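Input sequence (554 aa), recorded before submission:
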Amino acid sequence: MKSDIEIAKEVKLQPIQKIASNLGLTEEQVEQYGKYKAKITFDFDEDKIAKGNLILVTATTPNKSGSGKTTTSVALSQGLNKLGKKAIVALREPSLGPCFGMKGGAAGGGYSQVLPMEDINLHFTGDFHAITSANNTLAALIDNYQYFNKNNPNGLKQILWRRVLDVNDRSLRYIVSGLNGSSNGIPTETGFDITPASEIMAIFCLSVSLKDLRSRIENILVGYKYDNTPFYVKDLGVAGSIVALLKDAFQPNLVQTIEGGAAFIHGGPFANIAHGCNSIMATKAALQFGDYAITEAGFGSDLGGEKFLNIKCRAAGIAPKACVLVTTTQSIKLHGNVDVKLIKQPNMEGIKAGIKNVERHIESLQQFGQTVIVALNKFGFDTEEEINFIQDWCKQKGAEFAISEGFALGGDGALELARKVIEVVETKASKPINHTYNLDDSIEDKIKKIVTTVYKGKGITLGKNAKTALKKIQDLGADKLPVCIAKTQFSFTDNAAIAGSPEGFNIHIENLVLCNGAGFIVAVAGEIMRMPGLPKDPAAMVIDVIDGEIVGLS
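Predicted structure, token format:
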């Protein structure tokens, strides 16, 4: 089969103005970035948004095999459109770090991609650059304030804000700035995070208006003064400048699927270190302009899915009509302890052992009150016996089941899944989200409820740093915010090596980080890198420009 980029280059793209016109957008509402991508301006129509059918696509626990969540999301939107429904997919923007590192791009794959994939995977409309600039401008303004207030009581005893870059660069995790004399600043131990980990990114994705964006930025906690009082961006008086850098980026990006359907791609926080969902602006745009809005949340349902339901849905006032849980036979076998070299071979014992991981995700989503549709990404080596077993097993667990072949067949390969989604939406009454915790619960209880209900663990322990941070958060009166657990995506536990469906474990919380502007508390479980490193053979080794065309992107 051809590579993703080869398939993408063979597609005759429709002018973006035509895609916009099909949604009912006027020329005045569309700001083009070239021929095939645009930003749109619109006002929320809450009545239309409420009538839209939101479908969340999530997945089982990631492993070396992957599951194809983005591909399935795009394929589902294409399948729904083939069945006469007006479906729009809303996705996150890819980060340059993974694109040039290990994971590759994030525009779908095969015949279920969003296009132009080279633009989307690289600079796109400049949103990540704007967020990076906003983050680092704030860092410079904080350092400037400190420079001119270093000898008075208004100076900062502790600065919490770090700089970001959208690259994988382990050398920048911990640095010393301000060297070579007092005229160059104050020597400070600091470091860089990757742009998707920036609180500005989370704020960008959770804001519903420029006014809301400004308010959240003003509430960012940047440090503490010498008298131990908190110091916020509003105390610095620069929120207007930060909003100015984000104003144009804040509008959703409109592109198209490989089959000419509309797609909104906007914002891109990671789900292992942040909340892992595209912007509320994009999701509401998809709901407003389509009958069906298909959106995904990063990694497994225990990470992006949980945060989508407990954090994003609370902030946006939305709820999905159904949840699609994506998996593959290879992924299931890996969770059943089958050697990675053998996962393409028939192995019913591996399927029976590994399907417990699928069960854990189904139960978690059902506890949120969601109807679950298991989407099996089918490959040519999958046997009829394996598929029939998984289908019958899903029925026993109260989950719907559908095969998806969107990678190889595009929308035609997702018709079974699309029909199942329509059936669920039209025949089963949607329920309000049964949130894992109440906002009035203590921070410890919120974390413990996620661990015991979603992960099926036994409990939690708090490290010294977490206990100190807990007291500070309580003193600030910020303990009623939602919790965003930062942990490995490869396990329900905080140990990446433990796959499958473990039970009876504790999650150790190393630290608590108040993201006051974003409106949540990050609970750091285990060793979580907020600035990834590059692998030995990064994807950058095969990306090139030949005869004016980009090659090697995947």
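Checked by second reader. The two ends are 13 Å apart (CA to CA).
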